[in-house]
Design goal:
Blueprint: H1 2-20, H2 24-32, H3 42-50, H4 55-64, H5 71-78, H6 97-105, H7 113-125, H8 127-145, H9 151-159, H10 165-176, H11 178-184, H12 192-208, H13 214-223
Helix pairs in contact: 4-5, 7-8, 9-10
Length: 225
């Protein structure tokens, strides 16, 4: 009964939205403006589609601009426009904070052309975010190249930046354990094997909880491969 009520409510809202819409563009707007991989190209797509370009042509033109997706994605986005000669051009959508964070935390060489362009556009509009991106990449470079001798300078730069209080708090925490962090960013040694062994023992402990005594757990830990 509840499912029938939900379906009836959805149908009523759909009919109501169609009845209250002033134009076809108003009905298409929620579909065309929905966030997705084509966000950066949507205004261009609609413009060229209104000019009579086919899906194949549009896919080829997007590929020339850095789009690496399939033609099916383009076709799926334009499918609601079938039967409409023209459509209103959607505004350029801003990427979500999570997506921008992912771009900033990724190695520049691992970003595709579209992501690099969009990140550059975002950073150009926000000086504070541009500064944060530079500092984050600087820290990543220290980790990758084992340049721990640059850590103190990096911390001083961050703490002197008034517009990034959260990153400054992170840098202050590093200073409290500066010797250990510097060693971690400099030496080739890693605690990874030890951490892996600890995780393995915790896993075995959870498996044996309530099943047997400590003697059997000890045997499993010593003989586990």
């Amino acid at each position: 009964m509840n499912s029938i009520s939900r379906d009836l409510g959805l149908a009523f809202r759909t009919v109501q939205s169609v009845a209250n819409a002033a134009s076809a563009d108003e009905l298409l707007a929620p579909v065309l403006h929905r966030a997705g991989k084509l966000d950066r190209f949507k205004p261009y797509l609609i413009n060229r589609r209104n000019e009579g370009c086919t899906n194949v042509q549009l896919h080829q033109e997007l590929a020339a601009q850095g789009w690496t997706g399939s033609i099916r994605t383009v076709q799926g986005y334009l499918r609601p426009l079938r039967g409409h000669s023209t459509a209103a051009v959607p505004p350029s959508l801003s990427p979500s904070p999570r997506r921008v964070t992912g771009w900033m935390m990724s190695h520049p060489d691992r970003l595709d052309a579209n992501a690099r362009i969009r990140l550059k556009e975002v950073l150009a509009r926000c000086p504070e975010l541009d500064t944060a991106a530079g500092l984050v990449r600087g820290f990543a470079t220290m980790m990758t190249n084992r340049e721990g001798h640059l850590l103190d300078e990096w911390i001083n730069t961050v703490t002197a930046t008034d517009s990034l209080p959260h990153l400054a708090n992170f840098a202050s925490g590093l200073r409290r354990d500066l010797a250990a962090v510097t060693a971690g960013l400099t030496l080739p040694h890693s605690s990874g094997p030890v951490e892996g062994t600890v995780n393995k023992i915790k896993f075995l402990k959870r498996q044996m909880f309530g099943r047997a005594n400590l003697d059997l757990l000890r045997i499993r830990v010593l003989h586990h491969q």
